[in-house]
Amino acid sequence: xxxxxxxxxxxxxxxxxxxxxxxxxxxxxxxxxxxxxxxxxxxxxxxxxxxxxxxxxxxxxxxxxxxxxxxxxxxxxxxxxxxxxxxxxxxx
Length: 92
Known about the structure:
Blueprint: H1 2-13, H2 17-22, H3 34-44, H4 49-56, H5 60-74, H6 79-88
Helix pairs in contact: 3-4, 3-5, 4-5, 5-6
């Protein structure tokens, strides 16, 4: 399921070959890294920090750091605002 999600994100962001050739390619710069998007996806599923750490084989501290960096990038103060932004931007 996560693989399909990441493919969907890449299809949204990546231009098609015909767009590149015709000069109409428009890529969207995502504010988050692939790892941050993965963590965000788990948060959207309702997983806790500990559960997300277990799923990603990262420490809880690393998950918290990813969350903090994502929130700083889009200038929000809560996980609720972060998830709202992600849904609004169709990242999740």
